Amino acid sequence: MAQEPNPTRMELLKIKDRISLARKGHKLLKQKRDALILEFFKILKKSKDIRSELNMRMKGAYASLAVSEAHHSALELEAVALSNRRKMDVDVQVKNVMGVKIPNITSSIEHKPYLNRGYSIIGTTAMLEKTMEEYESVLDMAIQLAETEIAIKRLIGEIEKTKRRVNSLEFIMIPRLERQRKMISFKLDELERDSFVSLKVIKRKLEREAKH
Predict the structure, then answer these.
(1) What is the pTM (predicted TM-score) of this model?
(2) Angle between helices 126-168 and 74-83 (to 10 degrees)
(3) Is residue 120 part of a domain?
């Protein structure tokens, strides 16, 4: 059990300063929580849009692959896939949102002329090239989705942590400090009343002695 503070005026001033500081911290944390929630819903909408677009592109890529499979054997498709040496660069930066480190991922796939793509264009169809481009597009969208999913996860964690701190200040620390302030004020008032009564008694006693 926490020790009760000494009922002194110095302690009362300290308690009042702590209450003022706690209220300022509570206000700032609420502002941070609200800003994080706004950012969360912003990224959540972006994530939903990317996921919807990704689903559409995947359907298109699957359809293109099905057409390519109708014109090429599985061995031909595997050979082209293995020989398609295109370099993919992924750059990961970090941006700070209210103290939360959120990744900013950019990717780019090397585009080579047909003659430098690692496979012969003789015997391949335009549909096969379209299929590969669509799957590259799917990969790029998947990376964008991963960025938003990581951001959402980190924002949720920080929002929960901030909410716990806000609630701790609002429902535990500030009420406890207020109770201590009232208790000290009450005891100081009692001491002041006792001192006043004692002074009056002493004064009357001195007055009586002076008459004699």
Answers:
(1) 0.78
(2) 60
(3) yes
Structure tokens at 132: 């590969």
Residue 211 lies in a domain: no
Beta-carbon contacts of 107 under 8 Å, excluding residues fewer than 6 positions away, are 88, 89, 90, 91, 139, 140, 143
CA-atom Rg of the chain in angstroms = 36
Tokens describing residue 27: 């206000």
* Domain membership of residue 23 as a residue range: 9-204
Residue 2 domain-assigned (yes or no): no
Q: How far apart are CA 131 and CA 54, in angstroms?
A: 15
Asked if the structure places residue 200 within a domain, the reply is yes
Strand ranges in 43-171 using DSSP code E only, listed in sequence order: 88-97, 100-109
| Tens-digit pLDDT profile for residues 36-80 | 999 999 999 999 999 999 999 999 999 998 988 888 878 877 777
